[in-house]
Amino acid sequence: MNFLRSHHRSEQAGRLAILLAALLWSTSGLFAKSPVFQSWNATERGLALAFWRAAFAALLLLPLARRPRWRIELVPLTLAFAAMNVTFLSAMTLGTAANAIWLQSTAPFWVFLGAVLIWRESVIRQEWIALACAAAGVALILAFELRGQAVLAALLGLGAGVFYAVVVLMLRALRDENSAWLIVLCQLASAAVIAPFALLPGTRPTAVQLAVLAGFGTVQMGLPYLIFAWGLARVGSRQAALLALVEPIVTPVWVYLVWGEPVAWWTLVGGGLILLGLIARFARTNRGRLGASPAAIDGP
Fold first, then answer.
1. Using an 8 Å Cβ cutoff, are 238 and 283 in contact?
2. For residue 289, which phi and psi values (nearest 5 degrees)?
3. Closest Cα partner for 269 from 142, 176, 166?
């Protein structure tokens, strides 16, 4: 009985940890949309934000890296991670936070297609339903965004989802490596690749901007990974994936409440369809119990 109580408390703590990590990740829009960065050119802002966020996150996570080892698969992983950072933050600075986060949230469906096409995995009906919901949501958002002035932002957001999927697929291929080492390498490589384009004269940070950037890298990117990894050791991966859906839901809410950025109706409906697809994808039971499979930090 004591063991069951202890296990229940551990699982509850794991759920709270996943929720906390998702809430911290959801602050991306608060930092990216902060008025302190409005003096930077909009087209260069995403690059600069991606560089500094990755650099500060790497500093925080570096002490946790274990068993560093070179493998050729690290090349596409790090390049895709850098591209994901740039496209996502550029989409957020050029368009709305809601569109950026929801279009990036299509990543699990690109992962699904990759698993089917590359690894020839079998597909069940629920997964096709999930894919159809996501496709409908993306189509609705793009149909309206591509008629306006946010064409590039919408395409960058969709690209962020594709690159995120490549990151997940490569992490899967490298799942026998230390997760902290892979994450730190991704952050360091991302900063190195972006540095020549990000450290432009018009985006040299002031002391105030540097302080906000430090918070961006540690509070929004680095710290959540630590909390998420701790929570994943106590709950199943599918359960964690469902809890992590708090991030795309809350991200535009923070931006609206703090910076007053409105959310268009087509983003709400399209995001709702993507959310419905994600729930259909991750809410499948395994032998009658949600989240029975072991957890791993490299889930979508």
1. yes
2. -130, 130
3. 142
